[in-house]
Design a protein that fits this description.
The structure is a single chain. The strands form three sheets. This protein has a five-stranded mixed sheet with strand order 2-1-3-10-4. A four-stranded mixed sheet has the order 8-5-9-11. It has a two-stranded parallel ribbon with strand order 6-7. By secondary structure, the chain is α/β, with parallel strands linked by helices. It is globular. Helix 4 runs antiparallel to helix 13, helix 7 crosses helix 15 and helix 9 packs across helix 14. The chain is built from 16 helices and eleven strands.
């Protein structure tokens, strides 16, 4: 009887775990798109454009292409999305304006300049609000992160997914090994007011500028420094004209993949599901590409002789920018509380661990 009881308990455990797995999973998108058979081939055909500022081998563009491929595959070729990298359709701010108007259907942009069109996204520009990439993604993948994407609808755009962009650091023409050496430097920033306030708090002079103008401006001395992540620093060749970098990790500004609201409105409910799910499914490819690209980029700039200084104590930097946080705290109070909650929430479902623990309890 005792052995029978143990057996029943183990079977119950497996059934519970199976139910958890089933509850956490989603239907196979590929199978979902084949449902209805001929209806898909009879649907409307579309050819859309997707704009990106980065070069073809950059992780965001790799994510863009994966997204486009999934949409084409799951719509049986009815929905074609042509990806235009390297700022072929314009710089980010101009492209966002075109997406609002419906002149360009899709884009991948940094949430930095996006804040000028939807103030909610300004929260990502606040310095040191995320402790790590894990903390950032815990927030992005939460219901609150999804609500932030949905808020773009008020700006005539539809947020589809977030992409990785790592941590941002300062790089300069002259050596910068501590906070004091940033003072007085002309630093290029993403075009939003929080970044301008951030530079002022650090004692530097903010210079808003389009991304495509940074290399020549560093080269000619129009600006002294800029700030970005390792892949952008390396792929843009900025390391050739600004050979000093200090790793302070002041911001973690995610990328956003989005569609014009007017283009979204043209799609059937079925096609909207295809586009949305394809965007979410492309994130895995983009993040894997990002992780590899980031490591390779860091190795390349180190090999090129860039002097890299690690900030061992970030507290003086945090203290310096506290006035910026205080200035915007009321405006972003709710989102900052949600970000803080993501920091504290360490609960997750580990199916393998659940099975192991459950079976140990009843079998041993």
């Amino acid at each position: 009887m005792k052995r029978l009881t143990k057996t029943v308990n183990v079977l119950s455990c497996l059934i519970i775990a199976g139910s958890v797995i089933a509850g956490c999973s989603t239907k196979d998108p590929a199978k979902a798109t084949t449902a209805g058979g001929d209806k898909k081939t009879e649907g409307k055909k579309y050819t859309f454009r997707l704009a990106d500022t980065h070069p073809p081998d950059y992780p965001t563009v790799i994510g863009d292409k994966k997204f486009a491929d999934l949409v084409s595959e799951r719509s049986n070729g009815r929905i074609k999305i042509d990806v235009f990298p390297s700022s072929q359709l314009g710089e980010e701010k101009a492209v966002i304006e075109q997406v609002q108007l419906g002149a360009i259907e899709f884009t991948r942009v940094s949430s930095g300049p996006l804040a000028e069109f939807n103030k909610n996204f300004g929260v990502f520009s606040l310095p040191y609000v995320f402790d790590s990439d894990q903390h950032l993604w815990k927030f992005l993948e939460s219901d609150n992160g999804n609500k932030l994407l949905d808020s773009l609808e008020s700006s005539k755009m539809k947020g589809l997914a977030y992409y990785s962009s790592g941590a941002r650091h300062f790089y300069s023409r002259k050596p910068v090994t501590n906070l004091a050496e940033l003072k007085g430097q002309k630093i290029r920033v993403i075009q939003n007011k929080i970044n301008i306030d951030l530079m002022s708090a650090l004692g530097a002079n903010a210079t808003p500028m389009a991304y495509g103008e940074v290399f020549s401006s560093l080269q000619t001395g129009v600006i002294d420094a800029a700030e970005n992540n390792f892949p952008s620093y390396q792929s843009s060749n900025h390391f050739e004209v600004a050979k000093n970098m200090i790793l302070d990790g002041h911001q973690r500004v995610p990328e956003v993949l989005m569609i014009s609201q007017s283009a979204w409105n043209k799609l059937s409910e079925e096609d909207r599901k295809i586009v949305k799910q394809a965007a979410l499914d492309s994130v895995k490819t983009q993040r894997e590409s990002w992780d590899k690209y980031e490591k390779d980029a860091e190795a390349k700039v180190r090999a090129a002789g860039v002097k890299i200084t690690e900030v061992k104590d970030v507290k003086p930097w945090q203290d310096a920018v506290k006035p910026v946080i205080d200035k915007y705290r009321a405006e972003y109070k709710e989102v900052l509380e949600q970000i803080d909650a993501a920091r504290k929430n360490k609960h997750f479902i580990d199916i393998h661990g659940l099975l192991t623990l459950c079976c140990q309890q009843f079998v041993v």
